[in-house]
Amino acid sequence: MTFQFSERHIDEYHRLGYTVFASILPDSLIGDLRRVTDRARQIARDRAGLQTQRLQPVGKFELEQQPFIDYTELPFLVDALTRVLTPSHAQGGPGSMGILLEPSELPYCTHWHRDWRDNVSGLDLARWDAVSGDRDLFNQVNCALYADSCTWFVPGSHLRRDLPREVERFPNRPISGPDLEGKPAVEREQLCLEYCRSMPGAVQIHLDTGDYALYRNTLWHIGNYVPYRKRATLHDFIDTPKYARWRQQEATRANERREAGAGMENPNRDL
Q: What CATH number does residue 101 fall under?
């Protein structure tokens, strides 16, 4: 099935906080990208161990770059992004793009989070909150080279602050993930799945080979990974000049605040 753009993609992006461009990658490009990402998997494990789940940015490593460039410049994809967003939005490309991989030995999951707010110590949450709905900021991508059901979202959560039931589930910062230390693989997998399901309203996203998920990273989201299912998913942000400036300014500001003794702010502290 070839990709067909529709108004549904625009509606889903605004209403749910994500949309999927189904089967947007041609088979020939998938083959080229799989070949390169197989090499990337080995580099990642040689550098960071068998449990590593990411190599980023791809442009930093001795990998054939042309397939990543072809993917970034794919006309159908550029057109779809322009329709949902604007012509000034563009994928970051090899200089920022990562490859998300399966762990080699043991299941693992991240903690539930909204990007920046819940994983950047020293961030001024008032400044993040003021721009969290800005369409020029906080757009992210997962593009699956193999079927991928690792990502979970809470649809629509990008449009609002945390609900009371979400605050009750995760009252503290930093947010803790499940306790996996010393657990065998079968138990780890079950604990991770239970943790994913513990978020009220959570939905598991299923991507087929060649599917491209565009989403707001201000959504509640999580990644859950198992070693027995091969994964090579291209991960990037959608950049704009405004977002580039914001990232630089807020990363610098957060670092200065950490040096002054600030930690991770809790968005629930006044509730």
A: 2.60.120.620
